[in-house]
Design brief:
about 45% helix, 2 domains, 8 strands, two-stranded antiparallel sheet, about 10% strand, alpha+beta, about 350 residues
Length: about 350
Amino acid sequence: MSYRYSSLTGAIDDKTSPLRQYLDQRYPNLKPVQADYRAHAGTLIVAGRGASPGTLGAAFDYLLRFTCDGEYVPQPAVIAFLDRPDHVAVIGELSKLAGHACMRPLPENTVEVIARACWALALCTELYRKPFIFPNSPLAEPIRSGRFTTEVLLALVPDTAVAEMRSLYLLALAELADFLSATTSVAVLGPTFSASKLCAADADLIVDGVLIEVKTRLGAANPKTGQRSDSLPLTDIYQIIGYALFDTTDTFSVHTAALYSARYGALHTWPLQQLLDTLADAPIDLAAERAHVWKLLGGQQIPAIPALGGETLARQSLPITDPMSASSIGGPSRTARLIREGIGLLRRVQRR
């Protein structure tokens, strides 16, 4: 029986997966990249205040996406409530509030509301990705009691989480200014790749050919001093190059890989070809690598026509691609129809 892939991160975590074994064998030279990362990691700027790490990471991702596009559609949050149009309408209201993140200049008094809205959307997304957590989710009581409203969901967000989000966001506005500004040509939010249909994978952001992965980890604490420091684990390296290798048809023309360590305010970048060559300790034929990974995942004929996945912002003259078109969500099935209806409702609420 062939290996059943669920997601890129799952395959990387499973040391028995063919993909993980291939990455271990093909790209073993991790130390130079990890050493360079540590040398430029800097010091911890935004300390933890007790907020849930997983929810914080998802909320911060949403915050950056709404900064790029005030009408961004948080698709996973919508899918979690496909059978409840009233809940989708609330998600639309939250998205409308989060969309204020794209305002420039950004009014100081809006940052808290934006952070709360993104946190609430992250809670909704968690129910889509891990429905088994429902009994312990902060959303359980509002859903059971019929109090799933914008006001109630905003009030669920701990003040400590808002404070962390605010600090991370203001730091990111400075450190990622070149990527979050309106002067960039093309930004793809939550991009998926040709090989994502074989093994689920969606990155955080691609801007003008720069693939950016965002991490909000605190870093390990020194047992003697308690001081935290950042490092680059094997799983992060594999995740970043995995996205690039999953872009079988070179749809996004990625030329640079980047990781933004949000709590340290550090943006680490590597020319993609140089990164692969270093990790392999040998010259890499990127097209051949992508073809090999495609077959490793069980793919047959390589797609001839690139298809953008994710929400594409064309800030100059490029066409905007609708990530919710029938071709991108599996055709006219009932689920696809419900998704389109849910997204349509959300967009109407956003534009009121």
